[in-house]
Amino acid sequence: MTVFVIDVAGLTGRTAAAAEVIAERAGAESPEAIVIPHTIEGRELAGRLAARLGSPVLADAIALSLDGGEVVAEHSVFGGAFTTTASAIAPGVPVIVTVRESALETASLPGGTLIPAAELASSASGAADVEVVSTQGVVSDSGRPDLKSATVVVSGGKGVGSREDFAIVERLADALGAAVGASRVAVDSGYAPQSAQVGQTGVAVSPDLYIALGISGAIQHRAGMQTAKTIVAINTDPDAPIFEIADFGVVGDLFEVVPQLIEALQGQR
Ligand code: FAD
C-alpha cells in the first residue's frame, strides 16, 4: 500500500501550488491514501486535492486503520459524545484523510511516505500563490509548546478563581514542559487568552497527558480533550463530570494539591 503523509507546516498561501505538486506525484505513484494534518492549511489542501483528483475526503479523523486494503477513519462526533468510523471506496483515486494534528503519529498507516513541506514549497511552480496580507493568528511568546500539538497539556478552569491565580496552572505547565489550556469560562473570565480555549468552540487536543485543574468537565469541554491518552483531574467536587473520563482523579483543592505536585516534580530533577 502506498500512502502519502503530507507535512503542511509553513504552507500558508502555498496550498494551490502544493496541491499541484502532490496531484502530479499521485498521478505517477498512485497512492491509496493521502494523509494530511487537520490544520487550516491542511483542510484547504485537502479540498484542493479532492477537486483535482476527484477523491473522497474523510475529515477530522482521530485514528486510522486498514480493513482489507480499505482506509477506515475514526471520528469523534456530536461534541465528543460518540466515536464513529467511516471508510471511503474510491477505485483508481486516493482517499484523502485529514487527521487531528496531535493524533497524526498514532494514525500512521503502513507504507507511509512523508512528503515534507519544504519539498512542496520549493518544487511548486507558484502559479497560484496567495499573498497573505493579514492574519488573526496570535503568536505566542511564552516559549511553551504549541497547544494543538503538545504531548502534555495543563488546563485551568473557573475553579482557579482569578487571572492572578491562573499562574498556578502556568507553573505546573512549566514544571512539565507542557502547553497551557483553559476552559471557556476561564477564558471568558479573562484568566487566559482565547487561543488557550480547549473544547467544542476552541482547540481540540489529543495529548499523551491532559491535566484538568478546577474544570467541571462539561460536554463542550470534553469534546476538545477526551481523546487524550491519560486524563488527570483535580477538583473539589467528587461528582464533577470530569471524573467520569479521568484516568486519575484527585478530589481536593487545586491550591493544596498543585504546589505539592510541582515540588515533587522539581525534587525529581
Ligand atoms: P465550571 O463548570 O464552573 O467548573 C468549575 C469547577 O471547578 C467545578 O467543578 C468546581 O468543583 C471546581 N473547583 C472550584 N474550586 C476549586 C478548587 N479550589 N480546586 C479544585 N477544583 C475547584 N466550554 C469549554 O471549556 N470549551 C468550549 O469550547 C466550550 N464551548 C461551548 C459551546 C457552547 C455552544 C456552549 C453552550 C458552551 C460551551 N462551553 C465550552 C461552556 C461549557 O458548557 C461549560 O460552561 C464550561 O466548560 C465550564 O467551565 P469550567 O469547568 O471551567 O467551569
Sequence-ordered SSE layout with sheet pairings:
Layout: E1 3-6, H1 15-29, E2 33-37, H2 40-53, E3 57-61, E4 63-67, E5 70-77, E6 82-87, E7 95-99, E8 112-115, H3 117-123, E9 152-156, H4 167-176, E10 179-182, H5 184-188, E11 209-213, H6 219-222, E12 230-235, H7 242-245, E13 248-251, H8 254-268
Parallel strand pairs: 1-2, 1-8, 2-7, 3-7, 9-10, 9-11, 11-12, 12-13
Antiparallel strand pairs: 4-5, 5-6
Describe what this molecule looks like in 3D.
This protein is of the alpha/beta class. It has 8 helices and 13 strands. The chain has helices at 15-29, 40-53, 117-123, 167-176, 184-188, 219-222, 242-245, 254-268, and strands at residues 3-6, 33-37, 57-61, 63-67, 70-77, 82-87, 95-99, 112-115, 152-156, 179-182, 209-213, 230-235, 248-251. It has a 5-stranded parallel beta sheet with strand order 3-7-2-1-8. It has a 5-stranded parallel beta sheet with strand order 10-9-11-12-13. Helix 1 (15-29) packs across helix 3 and helix 4 runs parallel beside helix 8. The longest helix is centred in the first third of the chain and has 15 residues, at 15-29. The protein is elongated. The protein starts with a strand and ends with a helix. The site of flavin-adenine dinucleotide (FAD) has 28 residues, from helix 5, helix 6, strand 12 and helix 8.
Low confidence ranges: 135-139
Oligomer type: single chain
Mean pLDDT: 87
Biggest sheet, strands in spatial order?
3-7-2-1-8
Query: Which kinds of small molecule does this entry bind, naming each only once?
Result: flavin-adenine dinucleotide
According to DSSP, the number of beta strands is: 13
